[in-house]
What does this fold into?
Amino acid sequence: MQCDASKLISYCWNLREISDRCGEEESEGRSFPITSLPIFPRLTKLTIKGVPKLSLETVDGILQGCCHSLYELYLWGMESWECMPESIQHLTALTSLCLIDFGMEELPEWFGNLSSLKSLQLYNFKRLRRLPSMDAMRRLTTLKRLVIKRCPELVIKSEADYEWPKVSHIPHIEIDDRPPIHRRRPESWIQPFPINY
It folds into this structure.
């Protein structure tokens, strides 16, 4: 079966199963209950948003099925999710990650394992107070762009702030409506995800 390299799971308010049809006739495809998900070994881009009935465990299962191929992930969580899908840490090819609406106070330490990450965008984390440790953030050696918007508890306004040393090595930083900080010209520009609220 041939399948597109990208998938969009969006605004499916009552989603209870996922199909592997990928453009085939409906009668030929198989549907999977959320507890028995298909594997997408060639999937390179994935967007999940507007799917309130998907549990954190289900999203985790979807990500496990594409852990070596996925390089772009746009994940709209829920404020009630106080942690992230653990499978994100195993996305070895991931270069661009956009996370919206999570309820945790601190990003997990395993963020430092995302060694290919070039662009990280965090939106609407209302309780987020801390980034991972300095050691974890410094392991993100390929990170060129950091965007943090509508995260009111996370204070990174100046070099005097506690979190500043964790991000000071990143060439391009955008925080809320302040002018972007450019340290040096990035080797290649990373196209941001379009955010439509």
In short: The chain has three helices and ten strands. The radius of gyration is 17 Å. The chain has two domains: 1-94, 98-191. The first strand starts at residue 6 and ends at 10.
